[in-house]
Write a structure and sequence with these properties.
4 copies of one chain form a homotetramer.
Chain A: H1 2-5, H2 12-23, H3 26-31, E1 34-39, E2 42-48, H4 62-78, E3 85-96, E4 104-114, E5 118-129, E6 132-147
Amino acid sequence: MEEQTQLEEATPEVQKRIQDSFDRQGLMSHLGARIAHIGPGRVHIVLPSRPEVTQQHGYFHAGATSAIADSAGGYAAFTLFPEDTDVLTVEYKINLLSPAVGDHIEAVGTVLKSGRTLTVCRLEVFGVQDDRRNLVANGQQTLIRVNRTER
Amino acid sequence: MEEQTQLEEATPEVQKRIQDSFDRQGLMSHLGARIAHIGPGRVHIVLPSRPEVTQQHGYFHAGATSAIADSAGGYAAFTLFPEDTDVLTVEYKINLLSPAVGDHIEAVGTVLKSGRTLTVCRLEVFGVQDDRRNLVANGQQTLIRVNRTER
Amino acid sequence: MEEQTQLEEATPEVQKRIQDSFDRQGLMSHLGARIAHIGPGRVHIVLPSRPEVTQQHGYFHAGATSAIADSAGGYAAFTLFPEDTDVLTVEYKINLLSPAVGDHIEAVGTVLKSGRTLTVCRLEVFGVQDDRRNLVANGQQTLIRVNRTER
Amino acid sequence: MEEQTQLEEATPEVQKRIQDSFDRQGLMSHLGARIAHIGPGRVHIVLPSRPEVTQQHGYFHAGATSAIADSAGGYAAFTLFPEDTDVLTVEYKINLLSPAVGDHIEAVGTVLKSGRTLTVCRLEVFGVQDDRRNLVANGQQTLIRVNRTER
């Protein structure tokens, strides 16, 4: 994907911190999702099409679409947090715009506003087939920063 | 769970229609979810705890919590639809209130308003450990009825 | 309304704190809204019908419906906060279920979950005509507690 | 505002249809709001600062912010509808990102997806003071098209 070669990359330390956390999410590997990009305030997650992630008509299940959207937003927020903090999803809202079809779907989480306590992200999910990218879901998410010592 | 023995059951035809659709959702069986109750305008879905449905701290992943909440609401709406129709999620919003822990989680979808075209559901997810039920997520969902001949 | 005579009242101190804050909201008096009940974790706000609060078909405007719903939820959260704190709305989501008609509308904000930093409320708005109450809007809201010294 | 001189304008017929509908919204004139731009799939609404639209700290009330955001999105959708139809808000979700301060606030509604029955809009509200525009609220809205003969 040519677009991604132009995206700004996060520092190696941040990339490692995000990837390590992602690798501990049992659900992401169980679904078959992987991180495709880690930039400052922006993370992409890709989920290939397979029968295990479908709903009753064979499209990607809204739950799978949402799961990678939620993770993409959470990690986008996390790229801007200091060390020794954690990120938790407070809430999100997502519109399923079109049937989610394609060779794979790609969730893009982008920080809209990064505050001391709360972060707000935009969530987008694209269905990708060959060269075509179609916006299949669009959402908005609120996250909270938690200091590890407070937990 | 004693509570459920007092819940009103949907007709056998409706129960079969819901269960058949659920069984075609690859994601639900891949996660290990099952339907626990089908009533008119109300469906419960249970997801047992296992490493495949966790986030990085070992709790249920918000994506898994949302996936069964979305399905519970969708099928709750579907119980009130005529035959030869389908249900699609338009959008939903969910607050993750507490870390989702327990032996299993249980999503309850309840129809708040059933219109000709649109249905609105309340979504609740409980973390269940032994006798304790703790509300871990609460949401609201909009669904649309689609006539099969129109698709 | 008989229902309200059975509702638990907040302490006089809390009632005064809420009413004083409400009286400083220019928008509420400009719309013609008033507080109808202040209980612990629950506040009702009433808005009488008048041309100044309508949309193009003569129903209550979604903006007026939302405004009193947002205030009802915010003050419901505020009833449970300690002194020397403030409440801010983080976000809310609301479904407009039916045309908002009636002699007046009544918003009910109810705390679902009260945390140290964040509170989540249910928002309901009823259209009231004589003895009939019809749920015209239903929503969910996230609020944050702010210590006055931090501001 | 220089930006607006570059925005595409809707046809005069569409502009008239939107303006006429807006003028019938009692709430908008009561708040003091006015339409600042009508383009295809995009509408801007401006609300000047005045005590009648504030909350308890003197900022714009979330209800006022939401009211013009909801109207901007609704009219953005309406620009793309055929004649003899109406638009109704199904639901919206809005994050209040920063205290809404400024000489005026400006809501921008933009159509993200226009379907046969449902339209999804992005809602943005900016606090404007002299040359500075600050995003104070961001949301997402679902609308439904209604044929006038069906009502």
